[in-house]
Amino acid sequence: MEKYFRDIWESITTMMTGLGITWMHMVRIRRNNVTLQYPEEKWPRPERNIGFDHSNYNVIRSRLNVDIDDCIGCLKCERVCPVQCIKIVTEKAPVRGEDIQDIGHIGVTSNSSRKALVVTRFDIDMTECCYCNLCVYPCPEECIYMTGGPNAHKHPIDYEFSEYDRSNLIYRFAKKGTKDGMQKILDAKGAES
Amino acid sequence: MGVIHGEEMVLNIGPQHPSTHGVLRLKVKTDGEIISEITPVIGYLHRCFEKHCENMTYDQVIPYTDRCDYLAAMANNFGYVVAVEELMELKVPEKVEYIRVIMAEFQRIASHLLALGVYGLDIGAFTPFLFMLRDRERILDMFEMTCGARLLYNYMWVGGVSHDLPKGFVETAFQFLDYFEPQIDEYNKLLTYNKIFVERTADIGVLPADVAISYGVSGPNLRASGVKWDLRRNAPYSIYDKFEFDVCIGDGAKGTLGDCWDRYYVRMLEVKESVKILRQALAQIPKDGDVHQALPKKIRPPKGSIYSRTETPRGDLGFYIVSDGSPIPTRVKMRSPAFTALAVLGELAGGWMMSDVISILGSLDIVLGEIDR
Amino acid sequence: MSSDQEKLIAELVEKGLAGDMDPINAIEDRVLRSKAKSALAKAKRAAKVAAATAPEADKAADEIPEETPPSDHPNQKFGKMIEDKFPGVLEADLNDTHIQLKPDNWFEIAKWLKSEPALHFDSLQCHTGMDVGENMLEARYNLHSMTHDHKIEIRIAVSRDKANIPSIEQIWRIGDWFERETYDMFGIFFDGHRDHRRMLLPEDWEGYPLRKDYEVQQTYHGIAIPKVKEGWE
Amino acid sequence: MTVDTLFSWLGGLIPAMEGSGTLLVIAILIPCLVLFLVVAVNAIVMVYAERKVAAFMQDRLGPMGQGVGLHAGKWGLLQTVADALKLLTKEDIIPENADRFLFILAPFVIFIGAFVTIIAVPFGETVIVADFNIGIFYILGMGSLGVIGIILAGWSSNNKWSLYGGMRSAAQIVSYEIPAGLSIIVVIMLAGTLSMQGIIEYQAGGMGNWIIFANPFTFIAFFIFFISVIAETNRTPFDIPEAESELVGGFHTEYSGMRWSFFFLSEYANMLVVSAVASAGFLGGWHSPIPGYFDSNGWGVFWMMSKIVFLIFVMMWFRWTFPRLRVDQLMNICWKVFLPMSLINIFGVGIWTLFFG
């Protein structure tokens, strides 16, 4: 019998406590509010200053980007990708480190390494990308990166890169016509020899 | 008084159901509201984790471990790298150990918050769930600040971590802890001691200690049954032996030892303990040091095998790794704590009512990504 | 590569191994020269490995009985206890990593491992299968004792043709699901299991995926199983 | 009463048709239409209010308008309108194996159960469709009609979850009728009448005369009544018939579009009715709390509405604070706590009236 009344009493007190908490939250909504009105307000991105020699790498996990002019076609990123979402095809350049005007190939990277290969195809399937950032680290020319962070001056940070068609999410970074142009050059060379 | 038995009905809870925490199917035999038999059917989220691991290098496995227990990805990273490092007999710098512990404990708070909140939601209380998610977001913000990702981090590497802590992280973390600690009391007042909640969870789904051990149940579920077993204390890995904290066990305060309320409350207490660990770790963390110092050039563990366990928010996460000396593991077996926790459901839930099954399932805190792998 | 070149390279490698590098360096053709050099490097490495392993193996065979101090690893103690209780079940010599058992008496051994007060392995931590090659499959059990806080790894090898191991599902209840998973992935049959079904894959799936020679089936209920990524071109 | 007044007024307007059946039908239809509007507007406002209350209690903002173009208005005021439009245009799915006739019938039965009760609800001194002399019993009786619809919906969906919801609902509503009715008996004992207006008249003269403050037993009776009617309207913490985390959607799992929204409409209509009964029976109805002030006819509607709105707010407050009970606990509370207490209440009120009244 005592338990019966104690239970009723406990019910009343604990429930009143709960009601008090929700009431306080309701009247203090202006102070407590956590909602952001999304398209107008956006979540403040935390300051990212990682402050040591790694600062050239960025810590934002957004879409991948490749500065194709700097790519030497070493395939390191393709090999390290755990989901095989990077596909690179290269052809041997006729002369190492020299520009090829026809296809817009630039022979020397911004780190002044001379390219021995022409990247005819550099595709990244962002539908499969798992944003693990593993491809960014091994790149010797630092030409593959996720947009944002220290690279924010190159590209705006864009988390919302949704598309209506899945095939639009396969990013093709190699310059248009590189493949055909390169084929022509190789054919010409073959004919010569 | 005799008990009237009606015709038994087979009910499918799941694979799509609001409170199966993923794609879990429960084949339930019911007699009215009473459950007579319950059979979990798993495999709907099977993503061939172990087969994948046999085809890639040791560092490529880490993003996959993220996706096993997607609510405690840091803890999974931690478990995996600890196993590989143990296999390679690699010593990591002290600063890295501190960072790892900080991240793992933050992840524990985040994971427990979600577990507790969703448990409230299973019972029908909506508001505590949103309060807890609100605070979890702040932890995820800190993770984003550190490594750029909010859910699947790929942060811990064999021999180090991917990024050093950003400037101002320690201050942010202390701010969060100061804000967070009073919130725990509010959760308790709002949900834990609420009479309806207690009625729904106390004395329900009692898991005796010997059954729990026989089923390999671990983590908070085991501790709620009164077994003082925590790998951070009993078999310390990393630098957990440096910190002062209590191993929280259930005491049957509201009902029987090992009931749903105990399992819930042990998690709540563990959040408090994690805050304690975090305060110590954040105060002691060395200022200088390179987190990439011990990264091996090529991860090529010697021939052999290792079974290594770590304490994730869900329990003992074991990695059984077999290496043949090549850069690709021969076999990676993940012994997931949620797998064993779900296995015990059939034993626990028989004889209870429909609503209790949901309550018991929620209290076990399973993550289907980890069960099906 | 033509057979002439191959022969030439083989000759050069032989000379190179003897220490005479001049003929290789004298080759005009760049491609041939580099091929010869790489073949030489490979041969040297192989020779080194052979030199390193052969004496060691001999040494191991000779010296272990006399010189190696008896390991104080708990495995030695546990192995001896098992050997005393069940003579002849050990399949291999004791070592520090695991205890290799024969499948025959496994159920009784497991029961004893759990009930023996000095051992009291009350928790089956991990159980998995392993394709060890040479037509053999292995079941591995990681046991742990909550009371004594010691652990042991037990391996049981069976051949693929007769992959039957007694089930320990009734001793450690988690063995139920662990063994079902191992059966699912490796096709090891557990005799005496009361609910011997596949765990993660559907009941009518063909093959055992974690065997090393597993080939994915072509279709499943008329649904083609994709293997190669499409949509790139 | 309203229909009679309308009938004679219309008869005066069109003398040729005075007393004809057509005019009677028109006289009945006009209040029906008004009541339907009241129910619909009530649902729209209440859904909006519920979402805002929920959001504020959870540190959120709830529906908000934003940006240019089609949006939900300032502070999301048009959100429910948009929702209603969406529900109207949604595909109407009837499961293949469902009992088609009953499946279609069920939402209407539920809605009628909620709808017909409103005619006996006094919103002001004269604002009432029909002031029966058995008004309060009429409301209690008709209010439990809805359970038939819920059982129909649960049965005809041919879905196990729905069946569970229907069965739970039947048990729950039938049980909670009893403490609710017994608590109302306390009111009837004091007021000596079953007419709604009569009960409200009895409470004239300020807060002190409200039945809730008449004596300690009526005070308890109010809470028993209020909690019982929350259970009858299937609101959290008693929402086990639709318990989302257990029964997916309960009895309305298979419903979609407009049919589903009828369940919603009737839920909010039920909330309105039971709050009206509670405020008429215990909180002085359309009487002002302070005698003599703001006591005119128009203020009467204001007082009644504010009491109703306050009670509905309390229901929402409960919903967003408490977890859900289990089905047997629900029954335990009903039969082991509320029933004895309401019996004691009747006894106590009798004794109290004998000695102090």
- Tally of distinct domains of chain D: 2
Could you name the CATH class of chain B? Mainly Alpha
The major β-sheet of chain B equals:
3 strands, antiparallel
Radius of gyration of chain D: 21 Å
As a percent range, the share of helical residues of chain D equals 55-70%
**Outline type of chain D:** globular
Number of helices of chain D: 13
**Computed structural class of chain B:** alpha+beta
Q: Would you kindly provide a brief summary of this structure?
A:
The complex is a heterotetramer of chains A (about 190), B (about 375), C (about 230) and D (about 350). Chain A has helices spanning about 1-25, 30, 75-80, 180-190, and strands spanning about 65, 85-90, 115-125, 145, 170.
Characterization of the model:
The complex is a heterotetramer of chains A (193), B (373), C (233) and D (357). With 373 residues, chain B is α+β, with helices and mostly antiparallel strands. Helices cover 48% and strands 13% of the residues of chain B. Chain B has a single domain, classed as Cytochrome-c3 Hydrogenase, chain B (Orthogonal Bundle). Chain B is built from 15 helices and 8 strands. A 3-stranded antiparallel β-sheet of chain B has the order 1-2-3. A 3-stranded antiparallel β-sheet of chain B has the order 6-7-8. Chain B has a two-stranded antiparallel ribbon with strand order 4-5. The mean pLDDT of chain B is 85. With 233 residues, chain C is an alpha/beta fold. Chain C is 38% helix and 18% strand. In chain C, the strands form 3 sheets. Chain C has a 4-stranded mixed β-sheet. Chain C is flat. Chain D has 13 helices and no strands. Chain D is 66% helix and 0% strand. By secondary structure, chain D is mostly helical. Classes of the chains: A alpha+beta (193), B alpha+beta (373), C alpha/beta (233), D mainly alpha (357). Chains in contact: A-B, A-C, A-D, B-C, B-D. Chain A binds chain B through residues 7, 10-11, 14-15, 17-18, 21-22, 25, 34, 45-52, 54, 58-61, 80-82, 130-134, 137, 146, 149, and chain B through 56, 59-64, 66-67, 127, 134, 137, 141-142, 144-149, 152, 154, 162-164, 166-168, 186, 189-191, 193-196, 198, 290, 292.
